[in-house]
Specification:
Elements lengths: L1 H7 L7 E4 L2 E5 L6 H7 L7 H4 L6 E5 L2 E4 L5 H11 L17 H14 L10 H9 L50 E7 L19 E6 L16 E3 L4 H4 L1 E2 L3 E3 L2
Parallel strand pairs: 5-8
Antiparallel strand pairs: 1-4, 2-3, 4-9, 5-6, 6-7
Helix pairs in contact: 1-4
Length: 253
Amino acid sequence: MRDVVERVGQVERVDWVEVPAGLLRRGTPVDEVAEVAHRYRDTGVPLEWYRKEAPRTEIRLPAFRIARTPVTVGQWTRFAVATGRPVPQASADHPVVGVAFDDATAYCRWLGERLGGVAVRLPTEDEWERAARGDDGREFPWGDEYRTGLANLVDLGIGATVPVGSFPEGASPFGVLDMAGNADEWTSTRYAPYPGAPDDVPRTEDWAFDPHVTRGGSFRHDRDLARCARRHGVYERDLAALGVGFRVAAPAE
């Protein structure tokens, strides 16, 4: 415990990536949804899950900052000790998982205070997708083709988290790491259909454990969740087993 307490006194730092103002080609064109579902049919994901991505819309987003990697166990531990929360028993350089949405937002507030009043928060869903996709409509953070070994997903067979930043070749166009796999990531956006979505897209997801959208997938998910456009959420209570974590964002400097 002594080394944990000593780490609490460390100055908090975030490896920020500056994402410039620009265009997000959000989502998937309606007429391409069926083809996408067919392409990933081996994952067992039904067509209607992909329809939540439609339609494709071009959105201009202001500049913002996002952390290069998800919040680690080491970073979370300092917060946990300072606020009386349980300390996770995992390697300090792994992403922290099992974090509820309210605890993730509490961490953001705490971190912002430690950074001198920075407005730290969770990224919006649109910000997350722009950080993953860059200026084009690429399928995955690294490009249009899936390649095993660029993200910690189920096809690697690891079955657990690995140190953040372990797959530098899987970086997004802005250099953001782990946007696919390792830890599924909270966004601040509550689920709702995109404007102009197909009529059969559900207005709410009452079956979800939490209404907020998560992105990127974790070590237990298949390659369909590595797609930049893939919208999903938390549908089970065991957030640690699901690998639910988060990364932080902030306004541009």
